[in-house]
Amino acid sequence: MQSQQQSLIYLHIAVLLFGGTALFAKLIGLNALDITAYRAAIAGVAICVLLILQKKPIKLHHAKDYMIAILLGVAVGIHWVTYFAGMQLAGITVGMLAFFTYPVITVFLEPLFNKSKPKAKDIISAIVVIIGIYLLIPNVNLGDDITLGVVTGVVSALFFAIRNITHKRYFSEYGGPQTMFYQTLVASLMLCAFIEVPITQINDTDLILLLIAGVVFTAMPHSLFAASLKNLSAATAGLISCLQPLYGTILAIIILHERPSVMTLIGGALIVSAACFETWSISRKKQP
User: Considering only CA atoms, which of 24, 69, 97 is closest in space to residue 269?
Assistant: First the structure.
């Protein structure tokens, strides 16, 4: 019982930190790509040190797994860039809620791999999410920052869903920290060629924030999340993860003084409700 309670604490801390990651889109004075590249590099180094200290393997089992790791890293890199870009355009709450369409997107992508058709309940969830997204957008115009931010957030959700499905099908034999090491490594190497601000030109404040984002808000929550799964089911982890937009919104209100509108809160409630329902539905289906 105590180990389960400890795992729940680890999980809530991890989800809180995941939600807090969004704040760095506004706190760091760099573009989304630069933030992602530096954050990924710092997180990769931190996770590598963690693996060495814990004497856990870094080398992959099969040669083909390195190609899968590259694909996962590319998906994560695109997901993170669009994740930060969406929140820089639309604000923390709207950007994060747009990203949280990923559970429903996952439900519609998985049948492409399994050669099956989405069920009626999944179509209803998709409709609920579409209504929620519509409520997030005050003016449907791609020239509007909020609209563009929502679209970018949904693109981030798409690549996150692709990453999750690929990992589940082809990379599930590896632990969380080992997986994230390769993903952060590939993402940082992929994006470093496009960096606008060299590390030597980053001011001290932004450099400290990048270190915090990479170590405390990336490496640490992924390690805590992986540790929590030892005593908790994936279903519990998935449902508690749905609290991420709530944590992110509360932190944005406290630290950045963002004030989401009533329509944003209603749209967000619809999106998160659909995400929770799909997570619960999938977990129930997996139970014997």
Answer: 97
**H-type alpha helices, the chain:** 2-21, 24-27, 32-53, 63-90, 92-99, 102-114, 120-136, 145-170, 176-191, 204-214, 220-228, 234-241, 244-251, 262-286
pLDDT digit string (tens) for 4-54?
778 788 888 988 998 899 899 999 999 999 999 999 999 999 999 988 998
C-alpha distances out from residue 96 to 56, 110, 198, Å = 33, 23, 28
**Of all helices (H) and strands (E), which one includes residue 172?**
none
Q: How large is the C-alpha radius of gyration of the chain? A: 18
HSE on the CB side for 242, CA within 13 Å?
21
- Enumerate residues 6+ apart whose C-beta is below 8 A from 21: 213, 217, 218, 221
With a CB cutoff of 8 Å and minimum separation 6, the contacts of 114 are none
